[in-house]
Design a protein that fits this description.
The complex is a heterodimer of chains A (about 140) and B (about 300). Chain A has about 140 residues and is an alpha/beta fold. In chain A, about 40% of the residues lie in helices and about 15% in strands. A four-stranded parallel β-sheet of chain A has the order 2-1-3-4, sandwiched between helices. In chain A, helix 1 links the parallel strand 1 and strand 2. With about 300 residues, chain B is of the alpha/beta class. Chain B folds into two domains: about 170 residues, 3-Layer(aba) Sandwich (Rossmann fold), CATH 3.40.50; about 130 residues, no CATH class. Chain B contains nine helices and seven strands, in the order E-H-H-E-E-E-H-E-H-H-E-E-H-H-H-H. Chain B is globular. The chains are: A alpha/beta (about 140), B alpha/beta (about 300). At the A-B interface, helix 2 and helix 3 of A face helix 8 and helix 9 of B.
């Protein structure tokens, strides 16, 4: 929590095959990470339409974190590459909607990377705490 | 008994009024049933009375009110409220009244920046003070009519079509509900979509003609797939009155004047999706946010802040 008690709310999309399993692993390994994220499990990071990201950010979320498998490891072969292609469009929309680029982050976390999962979440939460509330909050 | 109609115009170019006059012969069928009690564009009827004797702006009682143009200043706001209190059914006519239209592009800038640009920073005008005497103050941004008062029907379009205006009036006279088209311009567009991505193509400006001008439209390739920016995917159909959309039938890409598909739709997001499906690069679009919200800026376009770094 920063000085004025602001806590960011982060909507997190985790792919079923890698990132969500990593979240499970982080949990069963009892790793500590901030409780600011709300995890939504999806089959693949490639299925999350940019609309959902923009909707989340313009309706009260402070950030969106998208986690998928490492490139080459996608269960659906190239879903995560699609997510990456969409990240570019999302970046442009953040600009058009007057949101900071830090509010959206795409990262790769494999099923065995529980510690990395906790690390990515912690990093994002710290970044957003510093950034403060979104203009749409 | 004739239906009384009051009409008022706010922040608008006057094109929608031309639509009313442009109705042509069907107007003769509806005219006997209408009585215009207030319509500044064609009749001399002043809101403060003919000699300015009334203390407060007044619009006569009417059954139907038609307002074109968005709310740009305090006078617009006052008259909109006055009109609402005097009519049973209020129509927001044209994209300005319905979505903000072209004037709402100014919502990207602060009022101070606009004043500065218009009165001090304009190369063709001698710089002078911003006028503030005997004129209504500007509102902080352009508002749609329904952001200020309750609206019963919105007729989109820049300008709205004579056909749609008559259809809406006819439904009103008969007492049947008038429904707007819910599909997109693409759904009504006869051009061929080959669904092959135009990847790597640079975006063309509509200064050059599309391929296939003059040929039947159902043999012409989708303008967007030809590399032109067309707002069809994110724009409500209806401009062609059930037939080919207006601009498409003139071999021009859609410019989006019928506004978004639904009240909460976001043309910026929809267009971004459409462009990436086709493989065009949205970064090449000049003034992207404004382009995608060209007619629907009220509430969708916002002032850019200086970025924190």
């Amino acid at each position: 929590m920063n000085d004025n008690g602001y806590e960011p709310l982060i909507i997190m999309y985790c792919c079923y095959w890698c990132a969500y399993t990593a979240a499970d692993l982080a949990g069963t390994s009892r790793l500590q990470y901030p409780p600011n994220v709300r995890i939504i499990r999806v089959q693949c990071s490639g299925m999350v339409h940019p609309n959902l990201v923009i909707d989340a950010l313009t309706n009260g979320a402070d950030g969106v974190l998208m986690l998928g498998c490492h490139p080459g490891d996608c269960h659906y072969r190239e879903g995560n590459l699609r997510a990456q292609a969409r990240a570019d469009a999302i970046d442009m929309m953040l600009e058009d909607f007057d949101l900071e680029p830090e509010r959206y982050r795409l990262a790769w976390v494999s099923a065995s990377e529980g510690p990395r999962f906790a690390e990515v979440v912690t990093e994002m939460v710290e970044e957003l705490r510093e950034l403060g509330p979104s203009v749409y909050a | 008994m004739a239906v009384k109609v009051a009409q008022e115009w706010f922040s608008i170019c006057g094109g929608c009024e031309v639509t009313i006059l442009d109705v042509g012969e069907p107007l003769l069928d509806v005219l006997p049933e209408l009585e215009f009690v207030h319509m500044p564009v064609i009749m001399d009827h002043k809101v403060f009375g003919q000699t300015g004797e009334k203390p407060k702006a007044e619009i006569p009682e009417a059954d139907v009110g038609i307002i074109s143009g968005g709310i740009r200043n305090e006078e617009n706001k006052e008259l909109a409220e006055e009109m609402r209190s005097k009519v049973n059914f209020l129509i927001a006519m044209g994209s300005c009244a319905a979505y903000g239209g072209i004037p709402a592009l100014a919502n990207q800038f602060s009022t101070e920046a606009i004043y500065k640009r218009v009165y001090q920073g304009n190369g063709t005008t001698i710089a002078g003070p911003t006028p503030d005497q005997d004129i209504p103050a500007l509102t902080d941004r352009v508002y749609t009519l329904d952001e200020v008062v309750k609206v019963d029907l919105k007729l989109p379009g820049c300008p709205t079509t004579p056909h749609m205006f008559v259809a809406a009036l006819m439904h009103l006279l008969k007492g049947t509900p008038f429904e707007l088209e819910t599909k997109s311009v693409c759904d009504h567009c006869p051009t061929i979509r080959e669904k092959k991505a135009a990847a790597g193509m640079t975006l063309k400006r509509p200064l050059e003609s599309v391929e296939g001008v003059g040929e039947p439209l159902n043999t012409v390739r989708c303008f967007m797939e030809q590399g032109f920016l067309c707002q069809g995917p994110a724009t409500r159909a209806g401009c062609g009155d059930g037939d080919t959309p207006r601009c498409i039938s003139a071999y021009m890409p859609c410019r989006g004047c019928f506004g978004p598909l639904s009240h909460d739709a976001n043309p910026m997001v929809d267009m971004m999706g459409a462009l990436s499906t086709i493989g065009l690069n949205p970064r090449e679009i000049p003034d992207r946010a404004a382009q995608f919200n060209r007619f629907a800026g009220s509430g969708r376009l916002r002032q850019k802040r200086s970025r924190r770094r």
